[in-house]
Amino acid sequence: MTLSIIATSAVGQSLEEIPDAEKIVSNGFNEVLDAIDYRTVSMINLIPLVNKLLFWRKVIANRQREKSESLSSNIDLLDLLLSASDDDGQELSNNEIKDEALTFILAGHETTAKACRKEVACVVPDGQKLTSENINELNVIGAVLNETLRLIPPAPCITRECANEHIIGQGSQNEVRMPK
């Protein structure tokens, strides 16, 4: 009904007067939706950070060849995607697996970001500044920071230089000499 009114207003002709108008319009809408879907998925690959992540090809290929294991003690998303099939019994392609994983990761990122923003809005009312008193109330942000530091420590190794030579376990079979 709405489409008929718009067509009449825009081109001065009713859709009911055009043979197969419903089919033509339906096909047109499907083509537009397919184009939007294609561009959305294709454009994601143009985001430099996302496109450069080695995750997409290397991790999927390694897991398929059983050269890598999940860090999870349970089945993870990639395991589920690798074992998934469509209604016809066809396994997902690597691109479909990549797209699904990317959707999950980006949605999780956005959800986490929203939770952090909401927490700050609740703890620090409009116009006020974050203080040392209310910073401890930011539990979600604290958990995100702790997990980030666990996964990507800022100092994954500590290099030190001995000021003096030391022998650890001197006189034992496991003696270790630390040179200056």
TrEMBL record:
InterPro entries: Cyt_P450 (IPR001128), Cyt_P450_sf (IPR036396), Cytochrome_P450_Monoox (IPR050196). Gene3D superfamilies: Cytochrome P450. It comes from the Eukaryota. The keyword Metal-binding applies. Pfam families: p450. One of its GO terms (molecular function) is monooxygenase activity. Belongs to the cytochrome P450 family. This is Cytochrome P450. It comes from Rotaria socialis.
